[in-house]
Amino acid sequence: MLRYAAGGGRAGLAALLLAGLADAAVTLALPAVLGHTLDLLLSGGRPHAWLAVCAALAAAEVLLGGGTALLTGTANARATARLRRRCSTHLLDTGTRAAARLTPGELVTRLGAHATEAGTGPAAAASTLAALLYPVGGLVALAVVDPWLALVFAAGLPLLVGLLRAFTRGSAASVAAYQREQGRIAAYLMEALEGARTVAAAGTAARERDRVLAPLPGLRTHGYRMWQLYGRAMAHSSVLAPLLTTAVLAAGGLRLAAGQLTVGGLLAAARYAAMAAGVGAVAGRFDALARAYAAAGRLAELLAVPAVAHGSRRLPPGGPGRLELRGVDVVRDGTPVLRGVDLTVPGGNTVALVGRSGAGKSTLAAVAGRLLDPDGGEVTLDGVPLPALDRRELRTEIGYAFERPALFGATVRTALAFGAHAAPHTEVVAAARTAGADGFVRRLPLGYHTPLADAPLSGGELQRLGLARAFAHSGRLLILDDATSSLDSVTEYEVERALARRTRAGTRLLVAHRVSGAARADLVAWLEDGRVRAVAPHAVLWAEPAYRAVFAAADGGADASGDPGGADGPGGPDAAARPERR
């Protein structure tokens, strides 16, 4: 991941590395030049040229430091943007797979905070290489000034190396654990925010707060461990570095008294000893690298979720929309949801999926339109396996409407036009009429151009807009996953009649909980325990008491029509008053 993050800005990272190395070289050269200039001043010479060199090196140090900071910020921004773009694209390419493995809170945290931390990795790596030049170069320069002083410093070098090694080894594990706890808190918070009305109505705000903050002790433990490691490294280095510098100064003073070292040499030696002992700066770079590496690992887990692969085939022109499922199995968390499902939906027909809660209706609907790939078996549309279809062909010819539609777009019109192709305004209006939404949309302040944020919508209105969006993009297969559950029976009937008259003739698969929806379908696929128990017209299946019990359970004990009376015929006692099945 860090290598990929660096790939989009290699020139900038190279410039950053060169600037850092140049800054380190100037910093290393400055003590030697200052020492030589001081020796010239003390000897009564004319150090004008050397004073100019000192000023030039000091100015270069300032400029290079500013340039390094600017290049670091630019590299971090580019790498973060590159990571977010790749991870966001991959997340959308996985369809529903990533959402099934990771909670929304975890996904937001990984694409937000963790992408930012991982984006600092390439610049941190370049800065670390430059930062290592200070202690290494300082030790080499100290040996050039006086080898004996370098030996004095080298006596404490194993302590410095051991300190840095212990910090690096413990930091990575603590950072990874800290980021995991961050993801848990974000996941719980997202759940609480999504259910804010339920929490308020139930009066469980305090309980939810405790649940959201439950990972805080673990977060505190890992955070404390991180800062403990960093603080211990800084504390040890703040003691060890002055001791080594003092030892070098003491030895240098003896060498100066013996006439074996000049005053300028002693000044340079003191500066180089301080650089060589600067383990704190290197530890800070390693800490940034550890954070970036751990965050990159979190992003790699997201990228490990396989994307949905698409083929390049097209559907046969003018196909009727014949949908076939052969031996379809779906397993979730080790539990079979669909078991050997064989189902044929004739082209141009409407088939209702009926069954008790948990029978597998929504899973079958997801498999039918390739929102979910089965673990076994095959799904074809007009004879072409869905995985072999071109992505655009698949999404153009298969439309969905859901129980809780999510609207995307700045205005109502753009939300209804949203899809594999942007539906023109005339089709948007026609689809809204079909879904029974045109009337209330026109009553909005700006009609179809009303911003979504300014359009207060009831559950039924929102569902009708979701239906309108699906109708505006109707292909040869339309799947309605409980998409009329918030509509009253009369509105549902009007929508279905308008759908039959005004939209492209095609195949329709609908998840039905009401008897009216099943009765108006051409065929009913009755699901039970993940299997297809029977496929037949509603009137035929109504003779089965177990079939009638499906609707009685859904209606909380009422009869199939929602009436408290008995069910004495297909659709109950109101069958005569119910509109005829088309």
- Tell me the number of strands: 10
- Low-pLDDT segments, ≥5 res: 557-582
Basic shape: elongated
- Distance N terminus to C terminus? 56 Å
Query: Can you summarize the main beta sheet?
Result: 6 strands, mixed
Structure characteristics:
4-stranded antiparallel sheet, alpha/beta, 23 helices, disordered C terminus, 582 residues, single chain, 10 strands
Short description:
With 582 residues, this protein is an alpha/beta fold. The chain has 23 helices and ten strands.
Tell me about this structure.
The protein has 582 residues and is an alpha/beta fold. The chain has helices at residues 2-7, 10-42, 48-93, 97-101, 104-119, 121-145, 147-154, 157-194, 196-202, 205-212, 216-257, 263-276, 279-303, 361-368, 391-397, 412-417, 425-434, 438-442, 459-472, 489-502, 515-520, 538-541, 545-554; strands at residues 323-332, 335-345, 350-354, 376-381, 384-385, 398-402, 477-481, 507-511, 523-528, 531-536. The strands form two sheets. It has a six-stranded mixed sheet with strand order 6-7-8-3-9-10, sandwiched between helices. The longest helix has 46 residues, at 48-93. The model is unreliable at 557-582 (pLDDT under 50).
Secondary structure topology:
Layout: H1 2-7, H2 10-42, H3 48-93, H4 97-101, H5 104-119, H6 121-145, H7 147-154, H8 157-194, H9 196-202, H10 205-212, H11 216-257, H12 263-276, H13 279-303, E1 323-332, E2 335-345, E3 350-354, H14 361-368, E4 376-381, E5 384-385, H15 391-397, E6 398-402, H16 412-417, H17 425-434, H18 438-442, H19 459-472, E7 477-481, H20 489-502, E8 507-511, H21 515-520, E9 523-528, E10 531-536, H22 538-541, H23 545-554
Parallel strand pairs: 3-8, 3-9, 6-7, 7-8
Antiparallel strand pairs: 1-2, 1-4, 4-5, 9-10
